[in-house]
Design brief:
alpha/beta, six-stranded parallel beta sheet
C-alpha cells in the first residue's frame, strides 16, 4: 500500500492539535476531518493545519459520511470507551491517547472488539517513540545494562490539579508506559503499593509514590507530584553491568550510561559467609550516546500506519494500554488500604460488566 491512509482526529482540545499537526505532515496519512463538540474550536484547528479537513461536531455523522481508514481519539479518558467502540464498529482502526480507558474493564472491551474485527487498536504512549526511550529499549534488549536491578522514575512539577483524576492517573501513565515498553515482556507485576498525600485538601492525591515489583526481585519506583516548584523528568535504570540515567530536560545530554556499580563476591553459600561477603565498587567510564532529533508523534504516526499496512500489533498496542491500566487500578486500591500491596488484575473481564473509575470508588 503506497497511497496515504485517511484519518480523522476526534477532539480538538489540548492534545488533538498535536495529533492533527503530525498526521497532516506525515507522508503516510491524509488528515481528512476533525471532530469536536465545539465547532469553533474544531474549525480553528482545521484552519491551522491546512489541507481543508472537514469539520464535524457529531461522531456518528463523521463515521457515516466520511471515507476513513482510521481515527485518532484525543478526548477525556471517561469518553474513550464510547468513542472507540463506535469507531471500531464502523470498521475504523483506532489510535487513542493515554490512558487507554478510564477502567480496565472498558479497556478490555475495546481490545476484544478490535481483535474480533481484525482492526488495529493502538495506545498513544508518546514517550515510547522518543529517540531516548527507543535507545533505552535497545540497550536493555542487547544486554548493555546487564540484568535489571531497579528503575527509579521522577515526574514532578507545579502542575494543574485535575478535576476528575488524581496525580497517579494524570502523570504515572507516562512512566508506566515507558517501563512497560523498555523491559522485556512488558510490565506484569502481581501487586503494587501506592502512597499518596493531599495537603491541599483537594479530595484527591496530589503527591504520589508507587512501588512496582519487577521480575528477578528487581523493583521500580515512580514519584509523581503536582506541587513541586521545580520540574524534574528523570529516570534511573540500574543493572548488574551499568546504570543509565535519562534526563528528559537536558537536550544536550539526555542519556548517560555509567559503568559503575556494586559487585558482591561470595566464597560459599552458607549464611555466615553470605553475611561476610566482600563488597567491591566498580568505577568505570561514563558515556552518552548520540540521539537523532525526531519528533515522537511523527514516529508514532508512522508506526500506526505500519501496523495497519502490515496487519500486525503496534509497538504500543491495546494490550500495552491494558497493562498500564491494570497497574493504575491496583494503585488506586492500594491508596484505599493505606499503601498495602494491592493485587494487579490482568484477567479478562466481560465487556458488559458495570464499572466505575477507581477514583470514584475511592471517594465512596
Amino acid at each position: 500500500m503506497n497511497s496515504k491512509l485517511k484519518i480523522a482526529v476526534i477532539g480538538a482540545g489540548y492534545w488533538g492539535p498535536n495529533l492533527a499537526r503530525n498526521f497532516s505532515a506525515s507522508p503516510d496519512w491524509e488528515l481528512v476531518a476533525i471532530c469536536d463538540l465545539d465547532a469553533t474550536r474544531a474549525q480553528a484547528l482545521a484552519d491551522r493545519v491546512g489541507g481543508a479537513p472537514a469539520v464535524f461536531t457529531d461522531l456518528d455523522e463523521l463515521l457515516a459520511q466520511v471515507e476513513l481508514d482510521a481515527v485518532a481519539v484525543a478526548t477525556p479518558a471517561r469518553t474513550h470507551n464510547g468513542v472507540v467502540m463506535a469507531a471500531l464498529r464502523a470498521g475504523k482502526h483506532v489510535l487513542v491517547e493515554k490512558p487507554l480507558a478510564d477502567t480496565h474493564d472498558r479497556g478490555v472491551a475495546m481490545v476484544q472488539e478490535a481483535a474480533a474485527r481484525g482492526l488495529t487498536l493502538m495506545a498513544d504512549h508518546t514517550y515510547c517513540y522518543t529517540p531516548a526511550v527507543l535507545k533505552i529499549r535497545e540497550l536493555i534488549a542487547e544486554g548493555a545494562l546487564g540484568d535489571l536491578l531497579f528503575i527509579d522514575s521522577v515526574r514532578i512539577n507545579l502542575g494543574l490539579v485535575q478535576p476528575d483524576v488524581d496525580v497517579f492517573w494524570d502523570l504515572a501513565p507516562h512512566d508506566l508506559s515507558i517501563i512497560d515498553f523498555i523491559i522485556p515482556g512488558g510490565l506484569r507485576p502481581t501487586a503494587v503499593s501506592a502512597h499518596g498525600a493531599d495537603p491541599l485538601g483537594s479530595g484527591k492525591a496530589c503527591i504520589g509514590y508507587l512501588t512496582v515489583p519487577l521480575a528477578g526481585d528487581a523493583i521500580a519506583h515512580v514519584h509523581v507530584n503536582w506541587l513541586s516548584p521545580t520540574k524534574i523528568r528523570r529516570m534511573v535504570i540500574g543493572g548488574t553491568l551499568r546504570t543509565l540515567v535519562w534526563d528528559d530536560l537536558n537536550p544536550q545530554q539526555r542519556l548517560s550510561i555509567y559503568d559503575r556499580g556494586v559487585d558482591l563476591t561470595q566464597q560459599t553459600v552458607d549464611g555466615v559467609d553470605r553475611a561476610a561477603s566482600t563488597v567491591s565498587y566498580r568505577l568505570g567510564d561514563t558515556w552518552s550516546p548520540a540521539l537523532p532529533e525526531t519528533e515522537a508523534l511523527g514516529v508514532m504516526a508512522a508506526e500506526f500506519a505500519a501496523s495497519i499496512r502490515d496487519n500486525r500489533p503496534a509497538r504500543t498496542d491495546g494490550e500495552a494500554g491494558l497493562r498500564v491500566l491494570a497497574v493504575l487500578e491496583a494503585a488506586s486500591r492500594s491508596l484505599v488500604i493505606s499503601g498495602a500491596m494491592a493485587e494487579v488484575d490482568t484477567a479478562p473481564v466481560p465487556a458488559d460488566s458495570p464499572s466505575v473509575t477507581p477514583f470514584e470508588e475511592a471517594r465512596r
